[in-house]
Design a protein that fits this description.
Length: about 120
C-alpha cells in the first residue's frame, strides 16, 4: 500500500530513504520525512563515537540535538555534559537532551530509530 492508496496517509520506508548522511567513519543515518516530521534510523558501527565521527561534520563541543530514540539492536552509552552516563539496550526508549557525547558499546552495531529534533543531525554546517 503506497502513498496514494489511502488519502491523507503518507507512507515512507527506510529501504528508500529521502536522505542518507554518512558519518566520518563507522556508520550513517537514513532519514525519511513524513507528515512534516523527520525520522532517522542510525546505524552506529562498532567503534563509533559522536566526538570522533559526527563532531568533525557539525562542530561544537557536544551533541546539541534532542533525541527521542528507540534502540533496535546493539548498545550505546550516553555521556551527558554534567558527568552522568546511561547505557541503552535493545527495546529501550530514551529521551536524551542536548549536551552529550555517545559511543557504541561492544562489537555489535547499534541501530536506533530517532523521532526527536533530528532533521539537522550529522548535516554539514
Amino acid at each position: 500500500m503506497g502513498v496514494d492508496a489511502v488519502k491523507g496517509i503518507e507512507v515512507k520506508t527506510f529501504d528508500k530513504p529521502d536522505e542518507t548522511r554518512p558519518f566520518e567513519g563507522n556508520g550513517y543515518a537514513d532519514f525519511v520525512m513524513a507528515g512534516g516530521r523527520t525520522v532517522a534510523r542510525g546505524t552506529f558501527e562498532p567503534g563509533w563515537r559522536w566526538s570522533q565521527n559526527v563532531k568533525p561534520i557539525v562542530g561544537g563541543d557536544s551533541c546539541q540535538v534532542s533525541h527521542l530514540v528507540y534502540v533496535l539492536e546493539g548498545r550505546m552509552r550516553i555521556h551527558m555534559n554534567d558527568g552522568s552516563e546511561q547505557e541503552l539496550t535493545p527495546g529501550e526508549v530514551a529521551a536524551i537532551p542536548p549536551g552529550h557525547d555517545a559511543e557504541v558499546v561492544g562489537s555489535e552495531a547499534c541501530v536506533a530509530l530517532d523521532f526527536g529534533e533530528i532533521a539537522e543531525y550529522a548535516k554539514p554546517k
